[in-house]
Amino acid sequence: MTGESDIGWLPVLETGPRPVYLKIVEALADARSNGRLQPGDRLPPQRELARSLGVDLTTVTRAFSEARRRNLIDATAGRGTFVTPGEPEEPVLDLRMNIPPAPVGLNLPTLIRTGIEGLLKRSSAEALLSYHPGPGSPVERAVGSLWLAEAGDRPPVDRVVVGSGAQALLTAVVLSQTREGDTILADTLTYPGLIALAGAARRKLAAVANDGEGMRPDDLEEAARRHGARVLYLNPTLQNPTASVMPEGRRRELVRMADKLELTVIEDDPYRRLLAGPPPAFLNLTPKRTFHVATLAKCISPFLRTAFLAAPDPLAAERIAAAIRGTTMMAPPLMTGLACEWLRSGLAGEIAAAVRTEAQARQEIARSILPNGFVASESGLHLWYPLESQLRSAELADIARRRGLAISPAEEFAAGQEFPNGFRLALGATPNRERLKEGLESLASILSGAPDSSRPKV
């Protein structure tokens, strides 16, 4: 129907909580996907479309604006609005990027600006403009020790290492504790950064089975012996992607098994401060076996690309520092300096508490909109939605993408060939609660329209 004005691609707009303008955009995206609309097809004028649908002009104008942002349509002065020939842009509602939401009652950009200005006034230019190779300055390591004390006893400063984010420290641990070809044990669904790191460093990953309480000790023993593995990676608190919190009893069982098998434990712990009373960390339960990594990026802001590591002993900390010198060289002095200022003053804790409050509000929104069946914590940044279906989560993610939503399918987290079907939703990246509501309502519509066999377990 190129060059013609037609509204046959529009379904009847059923009543429901989802905004009408999004229903129009989603119908447009579906029509492009199934061929009902072709590149170059002309859409009716906005006033005509509004009259046909029985909605006000503002609703249609907003729908067209959203569709243009997604590269679904384009307008030519004097000619009209046409379906674009290119591929749709990436979704505009991000439920994929797992970052903390803007803290309640605090203006983070202003705090960053004033914090940097104050730091520049109080610090010597030479210190901020110089290389800081090694595990960090004595002051930075001391502040890091205080932050790590949240996970248990305060570690000695000579066991603490400062890094430019958790990924840099995880890389240093893997390079210092394993060799090319070695196997790292991990959950069946695990942090994608570990998967990417293992591939880049030519290490292997072996998936260990889980039950309702977390990684199974019996399967850990079997996998460790089968692969000759010496290193175990765990993300036990608000696990990414499943949002589970491993109970203390299971943690102690895994500690006993790690002792029996003489395993080194890598504990990735970015979300601990989002919980009011988390179980004890592996750093506290088995400090002589554990490399514990705690980043500020997930509980304060990705702007503070600063993380702290507690090593089992001073020699292990020096080996980590050597690996850092061979990869990222050092943590950026200005960013690390600001992080330490905020930690010393207590502002970091205040921001983390405000982030936790906003995360709680967003989890409440998710509970009010989504069907039953998802796994989440009261104040976590993400949730996990298991699917019992022939439809794989990657296919569902593609459907969501065409509706303007970005979600993370299970395939992105798989450590092996067999893994649970489901997807992760991140609640922090949307700019405000209203946009989050729109995204979740759209997703709920997708789930309700799926075949019975693909609906989530309740």
From TrEMBL:
Q: Which InterPro entries match?
A: Aminotransferase_I/II_large, HTH_trans_reg/aminotransferase, PyrdxlP-dep_Trfase, PyrdxlP-dep_Trfase_major, PyrdxlP-dep_Trfase_small, Tscrpt_reg_HTH_GntR, WH-like_DNA-bd_sf, WH_DNA-bd_sf
Family named by the database record: In the C-terminal section; belongs to the class-I pyridoxal-phosphate-dependent aminotransferase family.
Q: Tell me the domain of life.
A: Bacteria
Q: Which SMART domains match?
A: HTH_GNTR
Q: Which residues form a coiled coil?
A: none
Q: What is this protein called?
A: PLP-dependent aminotransferase family protein
Q: Which UniProt keywords are given for this protein, alphabetically ordered?
A: Aminotransferase, DNA-binding, Pyridoxal phosphate, Transcription, Transcription regulation, Transferase
One function term, GO molecular function aspect: transaminase activity
